[in-house]
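W.,

You were right to be curious about this one. When I first looked at the sequence I had no strong expectations either way, so I just let the prediction run and decided to look at it fresh. Below is the sequence, 324 residues in total, followed by the output.
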Amino acid sequence: MWLLTLIIAIGAVSVVVSTTAAQSGSQFEIEYSGSGTDGPSPFSQDLSVQTVDGETFELGPESEYTVRVVKPATGEQVTLPLQNATQTYTVSDLSVNPGNLIEGQTQMTVSGPETTAFPDVSVQGDLGMFESETFAAYEVQIVDQNGNPVATTEPRTRGVLYEVDIEYNGSTIAISRDPEVNPDWYVELEQNVSGSAANEKILEFRNQGGTDYFVASVENTEFNESRTFGIGIYKDEPGPDEFAPDDLVISPFLLEITDEQRVSGPVGNQSQPGSPLSGSAGEFDDDGDGTITASELGNAVNSYGQGELTASELGDVVTVFGQS
């Protein structure tokens, strides 16, 4: 709000008149909302936001507002003004996919009380901020014509350009694991087995640091190899009724088992059947439980002493032992 004060001289008397005028544009807040993923591989998670309490704002030629994405860790930013827009949109929800922007598909989804539209945007800034790492935290901002933020989300980690490779041998499934995946994150396979509107959790993958794949047995589960499925990578295990939990990082979808992905032996570079570990650690995971015990470490030390294992390979076994 701004205050206008006028001093009007009437004869010998000065009269002070005060009035107020509203600042252009209503005040509003935005927050992250449930988001989808664009694919096929590589997959990128949408940056989807909504206004709080159903408030709206405008984007378009008659609006002073623009969308900006910021990477707080580096200060990099990309601004996305509407391009060649002939209409001003009343917006309560918007979504943009970084992977699509990188591929030159420069559309934004905007929704309001009465309509959903897909206007083109121009890209101002370096899209390389999305490509330098698979997982990073991003803020979405609504900025005014001077570049000042008027509404900002909290930072939220999202996956961009996540490559998915699948191996399946009929009893065990392996999904490629990006080296940037935090070992503390929760990973599950999701599939629609009941005919409901959404996929359901079928099984949990072991998320072992230093491995190339998430691996899990499908035996005694409801997994149907003839149907499409997805995986969900979360910072923490979601509750059973959470449709779009805050901890979602990325959710590749419409995955399927093809003839090329079927193998006859161990999957996911496993050296021991059933072991999710790769490399020298997998060679000494005798029970295939994804950990290295003191006995298994002792076997590796003996192999090193006999010249059958290099110092680097022994180091890999020791690292997994320390994490077990």
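Here's what jumped out at me. The chain has three domains: 30-159, 166-261, 279-323. And, maybe more interesting for your project: Residues 279-323 form one domain.

Coffee later to discuss?

I.
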